[in-house]
Design a protein that fits this description.
Distance between the termini: 82 Å
Radius of gyration: 19 Å
Shape: globular
Structural class: mainly alpha
Largest sheet: none
Number of helices: 10
Length: 192
């Protein structure tokens, strides 16, 4: 039994139309195969959310497909691609939280998924000395904390708070202090 390349691609396309997880898995594998140094999943994450948000089981599909993207973080960890890990975590957290009002989260699975994703930043903060990457991590953690406050305090920020409390150094805390001060001055005017 021999099939042509076109026949195999047609079979794969039919399978992918039925199994969304397989489609995402293939996209991740092909991305790593075609450009192994490119780990920018922001567009892919946006596409996953926008294509599934209005479907009956859209939230379940989104979390399932983003779970496959999130699995790529383990590969990034092995390759010590900390900047890529931060970018992937940031893209997942921002896209989910920016679309949270449109997601079905009666069981709390969406916020749990965000919390579990945020935890990937802790080892990065422990292992990275590069100030720029550390600040990017802190910016993501502050985004989570700020989103939780604005949304009404639904406690999606526990991991972010714990990482800041337990895994930051003196320079990190100075950076956080300056960012918070700038934000407060911007919202309430400068102190006189």
């Amino acid at each position: 039994f021999r099939s042509s390349k076109e026949e195999l691609l047609e079979i794969i396309n039919k399978i992918v139309q039925v199994d969304y997880e397989l489609e995402t898995m293939l996209e991740v594998i092909l991305r790593n195969y075609s450009s192994p140094n490119s780990y920018d999943f922001a567009d892919e994450i946006n596409t996953i959310i926008s294509q599934n948000i209005d479907k009956y089981d859209g939230t379940e599909q989104i979390l399932s497909r983003l779970g496959l993207v999130r699995q790529s973080i383990d590969d990034l960890s092995e390759k010590k691609k900390y900047k890529a890990i931060v970018g992937t975590v940031k893209a997942i957290a921002e896209q989910i939280l920016d679309n949270y009002d449109n997601l079905d989260d009666y069981e709390g699975d969406v916020l749990l998924f965000v919390d579990e994703t945020i935890k990937y930043l802790q080892p990065c903060l422990d292992l990275v000395d590069d100030i720029t990457i550390r600040q990017e991590i802190l910016d993501v953690l502050l985004f989570i904390i700020n989103w939780d406050i604005v949304f009404g305090g639904i406690d999606v920020d526990y991991s972010a708070q714990e990482i800041i409390e337990s895994h930051t150094n003196k320079e990190d805390r100075k950076y956080l202090s300056s960012i918070i001060r700038q934000k407060l001055e911007g919202e309430f005017g400068k102190k006189k």
